[in-house]
Amino acid sequence: MAAVSIDLEMKRFTNEAFVEKAKKLEGKLIENLVKPAGIVTVDEKGKIHPGAKLEDLPGMLLKKGDSVVLDFEDHQVGYVSLKLKSAGSPQDAPAYLRLKFGEIAKELIEKSEEYNGWISRGWIQEEYIHIDVLPVCLKLPRRYAFRFLEIYVVDTSLKYQVVVEEVVCRAVSAVSKEGVACVADPRMSQLDKVSLRTLQNCMQSVFEDGPKRDRRLWLGDLRLQALTNYETFKNYDMVKRCLYLFGGLTRDDGAIGACLFTEPEYIVDDTFLFDYSLFFISTLKDYYEASKDLETLKDLWQPAYRQIELARERFNDNYIIEGSDTFWCFVDWKKGLDKQASAQAIYIYTLNAAIELAKILGKEELAKQLQEEKGYCISAALKYLWDEKLHVFISGAKRQVSYASQVWMVLAGVKKDQEAGALLKHITEINPDMGMVTPYMNHHYVEALILCGEKKMAVDYMKYYWGGMLSYGADTFWELYNPENPEESPYGSSAVNSYCHAWSCTPAYLLRKLEKEEKTNGISCN
Ligand code: RAM
């Protein structure tokens, strides 16, 4: 279990002007009415099989213990209403129903009573409802993320049955796929399609991490969503809105939170992660590169630079970052992962972005100072974190060897060109126990391979990793996928895992990036 941070005393600072700008940038959601495409059955392994014909649904008389699973054929995010009536004698008792929504079919066979994870069971999309009077048009108040809906009749009475006449979902998203060109390589079209659906369904009033859970704006997720969005939906205003929210809602010392809430009011959470705070700088840099919006850059430079000042406090006199036993830095959900080397590299990575931004803003002197600091941090990484014998970066007092440390050192430019490529190949061969479990970390691995020119490895890995989720029938990509243990969950139970998780949408970005490079360099990645 990750150490949970609760800080009721935390003082916050609000930049009202920034929050006002963010509020004005809120877009209107696009709505679509979607009806189920079929009826299925789900076996004990969570596999789906064709069920009765959909046109027979209004003729089914459901009594105590009966159930029907509706399949909406693709992942939906929206508001569901059910038209129900009774059949038989007059309704002499409430209809008592259980409605269960699943992003994947397996969620329907997971028993919520047995849930024993450390995050709220409230995330399980299941409702028990009493209906006193039939017929009714039941409008469920929550927004759900799902492909499957199971209607289970807990009870009616001996004298009447329930009939489901119609079920409709008012699906919502800030963007539509219309006008988004597919990737050129048809063999990659399924990877691309599922990535796009993942991002589309996470784009609501802000970039949510997952529409099932946490339905919240997280900075680490935002960074990857924004990158993919520039290549696909091109909704620059939503990125701008999220940047102003993070920049305008901070701790009183200026620290940018790992995530924030938009309801019932805009408020920054009391979770702070070393890497996520720093990624505000990278996200701002990426946004500027994509939009050339200098005004926003000027506005948000101060909160961005403040993250460097705060991060600096964690370094010792040798320019080495010091970690702690708390949930201080994210990197990946891999259990037991030591974050020191990754954090050192992420600091250098974000210094690179800060240097570029400082130059754009004409802050030459500051850019020079940051460049110098970067040199010290790189030398320190090579002196204290590089293992000459093993030819890898190590992390923490126990000199842990992980993928994450190598990947981030490459992305930061601590090892470059051929040396970097050799390092990635070396760690892939060693395949240390400290692997990668989130699509978020796996994204960075692929990004590092591309940076080193290892395009074939990058494409093969995408096929293996994201393709692995496709082989399980994914309509959207997941929060966590460990090919060696597909059931894995960071929360003690996969019942609360999110199966449409924004940080996994990046094949749509990576594939387009590869295509662009191919056009420029004429190198094939197949
Ligand atoms: C998960 C969230 C989010 C991620 C954090 C660190 O709980 O869903 O995606 O950014 O962890």
Structure in words:
By secondary structure, the chain is α+β, with helices and mostly antiparallel strands. It folds into two domains: 30-173, Jelly Rolls; 186-521, Glycosyltransferase, CATH 1.50.10.10. The protein contains 14 helices and 16 strands. It has helices at residues 16-24, 106-109, 189-202, 219-231, 236-248, 274-291, 294-312, 340-360, 364-385, 403-412, 417-430, 439-451, 455-471, 507-521; strands spanning 12-14, 30-34, 38-42, 48-50, 67-88, 95-102, 126-131, 136-139, 144-155, 160-173, 217-218, 249-251, 259-261, 267-268, 386-387, 392-393. Helix 4 runs parallel beside helix 6 (274-291). This is Cellobiose phosphorylase. It comes from Clostridium boliviensis.
Summarize the structure.
InterPro entries: 6-hairpin_glycosidase_sf, 6hp_glycosidase-like_sf, Bac_rhamnosid6H, Glyco_hydro_78_N. This is Cellobiose phosphorylase. The chain has 14 helices and 16 strands.
SSE diagram, text form:
Blueprint lengths: L11 E3 L1 H9 L5 E5 L3 E5 L5 E3 L16 E22 L6 E8 L3 H4 L16 E6 L4 E4 L4 E12 L4 E14 L15 H14 L14 E2 H13 L4 H13 E3 L7 E3 L5 E2 L5 H18 L2 H19 L27 H21 L3 H22 E2 L4 E2 L9 H10 L4 H14 L8 H13 L3 H17 L35 H15 L5
Antiparallel strand pairs: 1-12, 2-10, 3-4, 3-5, 5-8, 5-9, 5-10, 6-7, 6-9, 11-13, 13-14, 15-16
Helix pairs in contact: 1-5, 4-5, 4-6, 4-14, 5-6, 5-7, 6-7, 6-8, 7-8, 8-9, 8-10, 10-11, 10-12, 12-13
Bound molecules: alpha-L-rhamnopyranose (RAM).
Organism: Clostridium boliviensis
InterPro entries: 6-hairpin_glycosidase_sf, 6hp_glycosidase-like_sf, Bac_rhamnosid6H, Glyco_hydro_78_N
Protein name: Cellobiose phosphorylase
